[in-house]
Specification:
This protein is 43% helix and 0% strand. With 222 residues, it is mainly alpha-helical.
């Protein structure tokens, strides 16, 4: 079981390392090379996406939207669902429980039909996440970093100071989080924005989560 969790963690890391549009996630995982080449949705032609959108009855996503193919992959996999009016709300934020639940389902820790609370509990029971505070609040980049660090068993870098912290917004994180983010940076998993900030409080959207799902499923299918 432990070996399976380690393999799954590398899949998560591989998906995250190639980045989400507008986030700070990037770099490489030793021994693994991931990218968009194997992601089905990212590479699907717009005409096929258009047919998928019509079939699914989704009305607020255009086939030419940057995450349209990945959103359809998530919908077809039962990981994201439009509301009764056909709105998927791709620019909408994702709560902590929703984000954790999606990762749990992608990794096979939870079932596709589990509700968010059940899937999040299974993720906790499997050791993927710890106790989740404010589960209804938006999932942030820092939340994703902590999930990834937990999955990989990252050891925080000791004695991190503003001068040794790899990003320019040291003041925006706690000492413990700075140590964790510095360790992830040392592993080559994260890089900053062009202004060398991490922006820990930036929230993830459904479109960005869909890109991660697409890459994870593509990596699993290889």
């Amino acid at each position: 079981m432990q070996r399976t969790h380690k393999w799954s963690a590398l899949i998560v890391a591989g998906a995250l390392l190639v980045g989400v549009a507008g986030t700070a996630l990037a770099a490489t995982v030793p021994g693994a090379v991931y990218g968009d080449a194997q992601a089905q949705g990212i590479n699907k032609p717009a005409e096929e996406i258009k047919q998928d959108l019509v079939k699914a009855g989704i009305v607020d996503v255009k086939p030419t939207d940057w995450a349209a193919g990945s959103l359809m992959v998530s919908v077809q996999a039962g990981l994201l669902k439009p509301d009764q009016t056909g709105h998927l709300n791709p620019k909408g934020s994702v709560s902590k429980n929703e984000g954790i639940a999606v990762f749990a389902k992608v990794l096979g820790v939870a079932g596709k039909t589990d509700d968010d609370a059940t899937a999040a509990k299974k993720a906790k029971d499997a050791g993927l996440v710890g106790n989740t505070t404010a589960p209804d609040k938006d999932m942030t980049r820092l939340d994703v970093a902590k999930l990834l660090a937990t999955a990989l068993g990252v050891v925080p870098r000791p004695f991190v100071t503003p001068s040794t912290y790899p990003f320019n917004d040291f003041i925006r994180v706690s000492a413990d989080d700075a140590a964790l983010l510095a360790a992830l940076y040392d592993m080559g998993i994260f890089k900053g924005f062009e202004d060398h900030t991490f922006r820990p409080d930036g929230v993830l959207t459904k479109a960005q989560i869909a890109i991660l799902i697409d890459r994870i499923l593509g990596a699993q299918a290889r």
